[in-house]
Amino acid sequence: MKLLNESLHPANITSTERIILSTWKTISLLLCFTGNGFVLFSSLKFNAIRLDKMSIHIVRSLCVIDMCQGLFQCLPKLLSVIAGNRWILGEVLAVIVFSTKGSFIQSSLFLVCTMSVNKIVRCLNPLGTLHVSRLQVYSVTMAALSVFLINWLWHFCLTLTGYYIMFYSELSCDLYGTTRDNNKYSGIELIMVGTFMLLPTLILSVASVMLVFVAVAMAKTAVNKKNIVVTILVALFFLLHIVPFCVWFAIYESQEGSDYLLKSSFAFYSTRIIFQLETFNVFINPAVYFITIKGFRKFFFRYIKKGRAGSVKGFSNSHSLERDAYEHRSGFLAHPSCEVGMVNGNPDETMTTTDA
């Protein structure tokens, strides 16, 4: 394990830039923990986000990953910027932060891909996907956890053995790793990058385009288009972080591109912006849910107005259980894949469009 004190990409940072970056990262962290925490609280205790079972599970998993990314990635970077754009947390924390850097992103990428593919399948085959078993839900969790562990263990072991040499990049305000001259792991690294980064990014891009066409094709059907929009926006904002980074990395890996990034003023500031998009990604999903999901927005305002959870009418565990029991008895739905609104005169239980 080796953390070099000198910077890999020497770059001065002015007081104004440090204040801007510190303010941005502080606001991002606050939004990350409050936004994702509220989504978890409202969906777990009050069923405020009414999507299909698999999508709700993925939304909760993304909240957990985003908060972990905020803790292990955004917070150390904030402290480094405040300290004068240099690493101050020591070698042990440097290894932990560096080894988890790509692992959270790749786990999120897997979950967003699964969410998009799941939505396409539900739109094309709604009756065949009404029932989602616990095994399917837990399989997605275990797969996302496996993606994280494989990538984390790989980078952690190679960092401990000295294959990766870590630097603090003043250009990107982030830890960066370079390899020794003997790239004996380069073949395996290429396979892992292709399997866990490039292939899922390609699948997500194709799935997002397909979802747009599906939404347009089903514009006059009973499918709930707003829930498709949720998936499209989550995928789009994630791609806005991944795609620019992949382009930057491809340019940086060439010697000419590396020199250009350090000499060109445009490339200098675009590099910093690209690396700050990761911070943007940790809090944007709750904003997407708030804007696009009417039930979640209604719950938020009721909760803020009432001030305590017990007084939020229409959003409780008992309401959820009674609604599911009614749906099961009526034969309309044995699974929360359709939105329910008004039944038997109750304004909170109206049966509306099918939730794809």
Structure description:
The longest helix has 35 residues, at 90-124. Strands 1-2 form a two-stranded antiparallel ribbon. It is built from 11 helices and 2 strands, in the order H-H-H-H-E-E-H-H-H-H-H-H-H. The termini are far apart. Helix 3 packs across helix 6 and helix 6 crosses helix 7. With 356 residues, it is mainly alpha-helical. A hairpin with a 4-residue loop joins strand 1 (164-169) and strand 2. The protein has helices spanning 15-46, 53-82, 90-124, 134-160, 186-217, 225-253, 255-263, 265-281, 284-292, 294-306, 317-330, and strands at residues 164-169, 174-179.
Mean of the pLDDT scores? 75
Sheet with the most strands, sense and barrel status: 2 strands, antiparallel
The total of helices stands at 11
Q: Give the helix/strand class.
A: mainly alpha
* Low-pLDDT runs: 4-8, 318-355
Could you tell me the number of beta strands? 2
Share of residues in strands: under 5%
Report the principal-axis shape.
globular
The end-to-end span amounts to: 49 Å
Cα radius of gyration in angstroms: 23 Å
Percent of residues in helices: 55-70%
Features:
356 residues; mainly alpha; 11 helices; globular
Secondary structure elements and pairings:
Elements: H1 15-46, H2 53-82, H3 90-124, H4 134-160, E1 164-169, E2 174-179, H5 186-217, H6 225-253, H7 255-263, H8 265-281, H9 284-292, H10 294-306, H11 317-330
Antiparallel strand pairs: 1-2
Helix pairs in contact: 1-2, 1-9, 2-3, 2-4, 3-4, 3-5, 3-6, 5-6, 6-7, 6-8, 6-9, 7-8, 9-10
Concise summary:
The chain is mainly alpha-helical. It has helices spanning 15-46, 53-82, 90-124, 134-160, 186-217, 225-253, 255-263, 265-281, 284-292, 294-306, 317-330; strands at 164-169, 174-179. Strands 1-2 form a two-stranded antiparallel ribbon.
